[in-house]
Design a protein that fits this description.
Helix content is about 30%, strand content about 25%. Helix 8 runs antiparallel to helix 9. It folds into two domains: about 140 residues, HUPs (Rossmann fold); about 130 residues, Elongation Factor Tu (Ef-tu), domain 3. The chain has twelve helices and 13 strands. Strands 8-13-10-11-12-9 form a six-stranded antiparallel sheet. The protein has a five-stranded parallel sheet with strand order 3-2-1-4-5. By secondary structure, it is α/β, with parallel strands linked by helices. The N terminus and C terminus are likely disordered.
Length: about 325
């Protein structure tokens, strides 16, 4: 008769997940540091990122709701890239905003089998942000609070990055994000002015809840999002309304792919990555002066992008003045 052996019981702590909590708008360097610490504390355990949608301020004080750096889909993708095994999106409602910290722990964290919680040192939760890391520890959870990241002399935060983006300082925003600021969307048909002027553009409408750089002209890159290995195109990018034509419609992001006029991107999802600010928007007195300035902008973009480490990969044409008629 074979000996029956009772299966070994798995220690509950071995099944427990490591949970990081936050809004994670932008998934900037500070957020990345939290995820990095979380992945190290118990290697091999499931790492769950808990985020909220919509932004809590949009529910609690809609008039103060910030313009978001990323869409929910982009946020989830960035969290996964930063090490999360699973992204748990919690719908933020007025009811959730009224929960005391204990209820948040029991109804959000317990179902995720949280054993360890990793948060930023400024983390608060529950009704009127009354919950702290001490409440998490009192509930029997292992807690690691990660110091905020300093970039230069400034603390990295979503709020600071939004301020920089709104001011057009995309180069400094890049330092806090750990990557270039990206605006993505589906290309729509515009007024066709760019094509008529000799500089066709991919037009992206700007949702009212999305952050976008200050009105002006920028250097950057564009790529398709519907292919696995997209070609990266150097681009001259315009943000805002067109003052020369007295446009009154909502602002748009327009990207002209340098040295290409053969692209058909209508209905295609694309991403525009901002590198540097060139100039503010100006109202020109005539079409000829506008065309001349756009030509200068494109030349400036071509030169500045070529100076970057990756410039030679994506700017293969010789650098030369744009012909004038």
């Amino acid at each position: 008769m074979p000996l029956e052996v009772e299966p070994a019981r798995e220690d509950a702590s071995e099944r427990a997940s490591v949970v990081v909590i936050g809004n994670f708008d932008g998934v900037h360097r500070g957020h990345q540091a939290v995820l990095e610490q979380a992945s190290r504390i118990h290697p091999g355990r499931k790492l769950v990122a808990v985020t909220f949608w919509p932004h809590p301020m949009a529910v609690v004080r809609p008039e103060k709701a910030p313009r978001l750096l990323t869409s929910l889909e982009e946020r989830a993708s960035l969290l996964t890239d930063a090490g999360a095994d699973h992204v748990e999106v919690v719908g933020f409602t007025p009811e959730l905003a009224s929960w005391e910290p204990e209820r948040f722990i029991e109804e959000i964290l317990r179902p995720l089998n949280a054993g360890t919680v990793v948060v930023g040192s400024n983390f608060r939760f529950g009704h009127r942000a009354s919950g702290t890391v001490d409440d998490l520890r009192a509930a029997g959870l292992e807690v690691l609070d990660v110091d905020l990241i300093q970039t230069g002399h400034t603390t990295t935060s979503s709020t600071e990055i939004r301020r920089l983006v709104a001011a057009g300082d995309v180069a400094e925003a890049e330092q806090h994000l750990g990557r270039r600021f990206r605006f993505s969307g589906i290309v729509v048909r515009g007024h066709q002015r760019g094509r008529e002027l000799g500089f066709p553009t991919a037009n992206l409408p700007v949702p009212r809840d999305r952050a976008v750089p200050a009105d002006g002209v920028y250097s950057g890159y564009m790529r398709r999002l519907d292919v696995d290995e997209p070609e990266v195109w150097p681009a001259a990018i315009s943000v805002g309304k067109n003052p020369t034509f007295d446009d009154v419609a909502d602002a748009v992001v327009e990207a002209h792919v340098i040295d290409r006029d053969d692209l058909d991107l209508y209905g295609v999802p694309v991403a525009v990555d901002f590198v540097d600010f060139l100039r503010g928007n100006v109202k020109f007195t005539g079409i000829d002066s506008l065309i001349d300035q756009i030509g200068l902008d494109v030349d400036h973009c071509r030169a500045s992008l070529r100076a970057l480490p990756e410039g030679e990969r994506w700017l293969r044409r010789p650098l030369r003045p744009r012909p004038r008629e």
